[in-house]
Amino acid sequence: MPEYKAPLRDIKFVMNELLNSEQHYANLEGAEDATPDMVDAIIQEGAKFCEQVLSPLNQVGDQEGCTWSEDGVKTPTGFKEAYQQYVEGGWPSMTADPNYGGQGLPHSIGLVVSEMVGTCNWSWGMYPGLSHGATNTIEAHGTEEQKQTYLTKLISGEWTGTMCLTEPHCGSDLGTLRTKAEPNADGTYSITGTKIFISAGEHDMAENIVHIVLARLPGAPEGTKGISLFIVPKQLPNEDGSAGERNAVSCGSLEHKMGIHGNATCVMNFDGAKGWLIGPENKGLNCMFTFMNTARIGTAIQGLGAAELGFQGSLAYAKERLAMRSLSGPKNPDGIADPIIVHPDVRRMLLTQKVVAEGARALIYLAGQQVDVVHSGKTEEERKHADALLGFLTPIAKAFLTEIGYESANLGMQVFGGHGFIAEWGMEQNVRDSRIGMIYEGTTGIQALDLLGRKVLMTQGEALKVFTKQVHVFCKENADNEQLKEFIEPLAAINKEWGDLTMKVGMTAMKNREEVGAAAVDYLMYSGYAVFAYLWARMAKVALDKMAEGTSEEMFYNAKVQSARFYFKRLLPRTKTHAETMLAGADSLLDMPEEAFVI
Ligand SMILES: Cc1cc2nc3c(=O)[nH]c(=O)nc-3n(C[C@H](O)[C@H](O)[C@H](O)COP(=O)(O)OP(=O)(O)OC[C@H]3O[C@@H](n4cnc5c(N)ncnc54)[C@H](O)[C@@H]3O)c2cc1C
């Protein structure tokens, strides 16, 4: 199992040198505490906790998994104790509202900690991750009483949260959900139905669990317009705020699954459980988007984590494992063979993981800054701009990063040859654990429809322009920089092509709506590579500027420029295939009659 080492140098590079966090925090309302020293101390502490406490539990969680009994669900050895330590360290409250016990730090700092937690032990990280989503939802839509009752407990970490959307017959299409909410005379509701695949739905890590549940009121309109949102606690809160009597919600069973064994994936039965409406009637899905957007950026981190963990494990291996000689002559003449890192194909696998992990970090932290501005930007204009940018970047981050993160996890395993397939090294666990990232929180297909349909075409390309304008300005500013030419020229070309392709897809979609569905995933992947091109060009610029100023870290900055070069030469060309495929038309997908699909 790779021993996780928090990539602090690169985290600092992205935060401070690429995204100028100090200035960013200084521009936010109420972020006075986020001084460079404070941010640094938080990240150092988080790194220590991840390396020393969570990382050693990653393989334990995979091997033991969770166990179900009539009395509840038991998490793997050490999970509960690690959670207690996490709570005692004040981590759950870091970015939450100070009025309810939070520390009010910017969300982007929370994302850095989430990255470290999620990389070293994704299954464990899902428990506090879901609580974070529940916290945000109640913070945004709850009444004052609900906030006093539930927020304070979620923020302190005493209680955890879940997100209950999926039912046996529906996941992507929540418009067909059946769980019922019958009003009671006392203003509460009786919730009845079955939810499946509920992450952290039942466990032994906290004394109470706050389920955020989608259900239908009697006579509600059909489809997504008739869904409301409810808080359904596992234990009903007492007058004094403590967890009281057991509510009629229980975990019927645990799913047996491919990966993330340490996280309990539960069938949850609501048998007339007492619930409280949160937000307006029939607007539940809108409110739930608060949760889902948090969870989508959270899931994007899974892609980053998969690439980072794969890279860390396979890099160490590639430097030690000896096999054959370099094509240009021995590099380790005293040994029986050369280390495999000398071989171009092994380099391809290592560098792919590296540029995916570092590019993903840049994208997620950039999205994190938009979250900060949406919450605490000083002007309405700033907040609106950040919201548009975040809306555009979220489906790309979620789907593109989990897709290429999974590819990277596979490459990490491949570097190990046969040993990659053996459990002891942890590489196959990384592959199994990261596969779910492309499925939950909206599959890649669903994210792609959101991006192309809702975010781009329905806004007449406005959301895309918010981003491409930034890229255009960057290209213009650096057009005369000879050293950057190898990055700026292809970036400017991609930026233009992106707009042209959007127009073409938009035109064909006006004649046939199926074209949107047929082009969507290629469009999303193309967009992901285009966003990465912008971020890698910017990272190359920072590194080149540093080297021009003179630095004692020449090797670090040089590696950045070389990584950018690898990205532009070897990954960006994938856009050519996506461009061609997205324009290939829906016919080749839809012409075959359904009856012809036979075995
Ligand atoms: C381990 C795990 C943990 C999970 N945790 C949670 C949780 O905590 N809470 C929760 O509520 N849910 C959770 N889920 C459920 C998850 O979010 C859903 O499984 C997911 O959203 C997909 O829904 P589905 O399984 O019903 O697939 P379907 O919706 O049946 O989709 C099947 C396939 O059809 C495709 N598809 C469907 N509609 C379209 C369309 N219009 N256009 C193109 N393609 C389409 C999908 O992309 C997919 O490939 C979890 C699932 C797993 C496996």
UniProtKB/TrEMBL annotation:
Q: Catalyzes what?
A: 3-(methylsulfanyl)propanoyl-CoA + oxidized [electron-transfer flavoprotein] + H(+) = 3-(methylsulfanyl)acryloyl-CoA + reduced [electron-transfer flavoprotein]
**Which top-level enzyme class is recorded in the Swiss-Prot or TrEMBL entry?**
oxidoreductase
Q: Does the keyword field hold Flavoprotein? A: yes
Q: Which UniProt keywords apply?
A: FAD, Flavoprotein, Oxidoreductase
Q: Where is the Acyl-CoA dehydrogenase/oxidase N-terminal domain?
A: 68-158
Reported cofactor(s): FAD
What Pfam families is this protein classified in? Answer: Acyl-CoA_dh_1, Acyl-CoA_dh_C, Acyl-CoA_dh_M, Acyl-CoA_dh_N
Acetyl-CoA dehydrogenase-like C-terminal domain: which residues?
A: 467-593
Q: What is its EC number?
A: 1.3.99.41
Which residues, by range, are in coiled-coil regions?
A: none
Q: What GO MF terms are annotated? A: flavin adenine dinucleotide binding; oxidoreductase activity, acting on the CH-CH group of donors
Domain (Acyl-CoA dehydrogenase/oxidase C-terminal): give its ranges: 282-450
Limits of the Acyl-CoA oxidase/dehydrogenase middle domain: 163-271
Whether Oxidoreductase counts among this entry's keywords is: yes
Q: Which family does it belong to?
A: Belongs to the acyl-CoA dehydrogenase family.
Q: What does this protein do?
A: Involved in the assimilation of dimethylsulphoniopropionate (DMSP), an important compound in the fixation of carbon in marine phytoplankton, by mediating the conversion of 3-(methylthio)propanoyl-CoA (MMPA-CoA) to 3-(methylthio)acryloyl-CoA (MTA-CoA).
- Name of this chain's protein: 3-methylmercaptopropionyl-CoA dehydrogenase
Q: What is the lineage of its organism?
A: Bacteria, Pseudomonadati, Pseudomonadota, Gammaproteobacteria, Pseudomonadales
